[in-house]
Amino acid sequence: MKNWMLTIGVLFLTLNTIQSQSVIGKWKTIDDETGEAKSIVEVYEKSGKVYGKVVEILRADHKKDICSKCSGAEKNKPILGMIIINGLKKDGDEYNGGSILDPTNGKKYKCYITLDSADKLKLRGYVGVAIMGRTQYWTRVKN
To answer: How remote is the C-alpha of 51 from its chain's centroid?
Structure first.
């Protein structure tokens, strides 16, 4: 009986910890084709909305890359320092209603993000409906 109660207690604490975690922080982006770490994006809140800024490029040969395929204000701007997640609002356990920019192709997509676990962020970028899109998983950077 004690083992059963201990198991329930640990499970409750684990679920509570995961739910209390925030998307705010630094995340390592992973190339979903190669599995290679690409950059560090800092996700932050400003005026009730969530944004993500590229704060580090991990591959030495890409540190000075610019967004040559972007349009508008991002055209030919350095990817380092670029805000790639824009204007997401909290909606239950999900953040949505904003966009994400893919600097490799210059395209903006609707997106939503959720915590898959305390240290894993799920991002879904899409055009039109969410089923027609691509999912990436980023890992939390430990300080």
So the answer is: 9
The domains found in the chain, sorted by start residue, are 23-140 (2.40.128.520)
Q: Which residue has the tokens 């409750």?
A: 12
Give the number of other CB atoms < 10 A from CB of residue 107: 15
**CA atoms of 137 and 143, how far apart (whole Å):** 19
Residue owning tokens 């390592």: 28
Residue spans of beta strands (DSSP E) within 1-143? 25-30, 37-46, 49-57, 83-91, 94-102, 107-117, 120-126, 133-140
- pLDDT tens digits along 31-65: 888 889 999 999 999 999 999 999 999 999 999 99
